[in-house]
Amino acid sequence: MKTTIEMPDDLFRRAKAVAALHGMSMKDWLTDVLRREVGAGATAPQGDRQQEIEAFNRELDQLSKKISAAWQGPQDAVAAIREQRRDLGA
User: Pick from 3, 47, 51, 48: which is nearest to 26 by CA?
Assistant: First the structure.
């Protein structure tokens, strides 16, 4: 079902940021929050989700360190990727 929700701009921006931090779309995050609040369906406990996010971030950090250690160039890997994306118009 679709619905429209009106809220202050600053609240929307903060909610969207929280959803992104959880790796979720705004729709999925709001659905998850509403389910928890009204008890309509089982969802993963917030602690479990936070542990998954932290594990994922640790894995990303490890990969970043491996890429940076192996990178052969005048600039770091992240800067090279950003430059390449700029050149491609992305």
Answer: 3
66 phi, psi to nearest 5 deg: -65, -45
In terms of residues, how long is the chain? 90
Q: Rounded to an integer, what distance in angstroms lies between the CA atom of residue 30 and that of residue 3?
A: 12
d(CA 86, CA 49): 34
Residue 10, CA distances (Å) to 5, 13, 37, 85 in order: 14, 5, 22, 30
pLDDT (tens digit, 9 = 90+) per residue, 2-21? 888 898 898 898 888 888 88
pTM metric for this prediction:
0.43
Measured CA to CA, the distance from residue 82 to residue 64 in angstroms comes to 15
